[in-house]
Design brief:
Blueprint lengths: L3 H14 L4 E5 L3 H14 L8 E5 L4 E4 L5 E4 L8 E4 L8 H15 L18 H4 L3
Parallel strand pairs: 1-2, 4-5
Antiparallel strand pairs: 1-3, 3-4
Helix pairs in contact: 1-3, 2-3
Length: 133
């Protein structure tokens, strides 16, 4: 069984492992997204390929990038996506939670280190089991 934090951590790892792709998000968090990508480049200077930002009307945050897909939102996507149930956020700010998790992992050296990706980072991600929370 998974949890909001486990799924959020997997989504953060997927962003940090991604090479290119498209990050879909609402324009109201675009400044935060640009800032996050700049901070990632500060902590992981070897990462040179970032997703392109594309703006959508919904409050979802979606990364589509060959095998590193995730969706932070209310509606369940196919199991090709790591789905983070945004309504499970204790803070009420899924983007803030996600940004914080990404930076924690980047500061720790993920993905260029062993064991710094948090609990379960070295194991296979089981999306079906993660959705049972």
């Amino acid at each position: 069984m998974g949890s909001y934090v486990d799924s959020l951590r997997e989504a953060a790892r997927r962003l940090l492992r991604s090479e290119g792709g498209i990050l879909y998000l609402n324009r109201n968090i675009s400044e935060g997204a640009i800032e996050l990508l700049l901070e990632i480049s500060d902590y992981a200077p070897s990462k040179i390929s970032f997703p392109e930002l594309s703006y959508i009307e919904s409050q979802e945050i979606i990364l589509e990038c060959s095998g590193n897909n995730f969706n932070i939102g209310e509606e369940e996507k196919s199991e090709e996506y790591c789905w983070v149930k945004s309504h499970k956020s204790e803070t009420g700010d899924p983007w803030g939670d996600f940004s914080k998790m990404v930076l924690e992992l980047a500061v720790a050296g993920y993905p260029g280190c062993i064991g710094c990706g948090g609990p379960g980072s070295e194991e296979f991600w089981d999306e079906a089991s993660s959705r049972i929370y």
